[in-house]
Amino acid sequence: MGREDLLAFWTIVAGVLCNSACAILGCYMVLRRMSLLGDAISHAVLPGTVVAVLWSGQLVGWQVFVGAVAVGILTAFLTQALANFGNVPEDSSMGVVFTSLFALGVILLNQYASQVDLDPGCVLYGLIEFVPLDTVSWLGMEIPRAIFMLSTVAALTVLFVTLLWKELKIVSFDAGLATAMGISAITVHYLLMAMVAVVTVASFEAVGSILVIAMLIVPPATAHLLTDRLWMMQVLAVASACLSAIIGYFLAEYWNTSVAGMMSVVAGGLFTIAVIFAPQHGLLVKAYRKLQWTVRIIKEDILAVLYRVEERGRRDSQETRLEREKCVQFAGGGLLARLAIPLMQSRGLIVDAGDGCLALTDAGRGGAKSLVRSHRLWEAYLEKHFELPRDHLHAPASRMEHFLGPNLQQEISEELEAPQQDPHGQVIPQPDPPDVA
Q1: Smallest Cα–Cα separation from 179: which of 167, 194, 163?
Q2: What is the pTM of this model?
Q3: Using CA of residue 135, residue 59, residue 19, residue 212, what is the dihedral sign?
Q4: In angstroms, rounded to a whole number, what is the distance separating the alpha carbons of residues 66 and 101?
Q5: CATH, range 373-415
Q6: 78 CB contacts (<8 Å, ≥6 apart)?
Q7: Helix (H/G/I), strand (E/B), else coil: 423
Q8: Is residue 436 helix, strand or coil?
Q9: Which tens digit of pLDDT belongs to each residue from 154-187?
Q10: Is 387 exposed, middle or buried (0-12, 13-18, 19+ CB in 10 A)?
């Protein structure tokens, strides 16, 4: 493996470790609708880092780590305290705390950074491509120093989630239930915030205090669109984070741009793909479901109008068919209404009765009868329980008729004592008796 390949390998490993740890904890932040708190912590640890560096005179060491983590925990505490005791909305308290602390960090950085080799760009944006250059010897190999920190933090993150799996899960979905079960939701909250602070500080060298936000939020948000199960959400979040690291590195090399920035861009691209193509919550699936509902309602409207025409024709010795164009217009017109008619013919619900007219089949008549029964029962229900004029009953019944199945029809009929007519004097169709073998 050549030197360039080795540098690329360690850069990607650093990105994978950092992104994975952030993604695992970020799942709980997303579920608890606290993603902005991860943002707040990642910004607010800056003053703790600067103070620790100025105090110790070193860019790395336990003092820097402890200082940054302490301010991260302080951020979560102050945010919660302002919300609970200051009668301030949680989002407002979060904004006040993290902007104030971050601004303090920027002032300290610009004021005293000349005393130490602390570059604002390195702290804020990170230089992951330089991670492989600072190495230590281990088992005869040169390993980047940051890899030890990132791998340790990643292992601690997995251990933390494993040990507190039940508590984190219950608190994330229902903090009130957790308290009722004897689990201290506040304790779990601060432990989670402490772990987020640890991961954030350890990620400084890889992605900086700003770009770590993307890995805390975007991969978990992507996974949340793809699954409704927590364990699978974390697996998919880690997979998204790893893909972001790998693809982001090669794209950054190709375009000669920021590696950490491109990793975040790739994470955003994966999120966009999930928004569009997610199997349950994606835009395409939602559009398809909406189209299905629209076509179903159009088909049922056509069945209902044909039933009423047939009903009136039998009663008054008139035509029991209806012109195709009138059916289309009654269903709202447009392309979908025109396409619904051949679809209904192919399924044996209606037939071409000649002279451009349509008529119901036996199968279509059964469905149409249930729709008209729903409509007229609902009109009777509205008249009994609501003070509505009779000319105001038809519109809501036209909407509800598509959602009242046989069981609800039966309940409404029993509650109304089996009415035979609707408020307009129209006969309410009765359900067909069950077949007896």
Answers
A1: 167
A2: 0.85
A3: negative
A4: 16
A5: 1.10.60
A6: 93, 97
A7: coil
A8: coil
A9: 999 999 999 999 999 999 999 888 989 999 998 9
A10: exposed
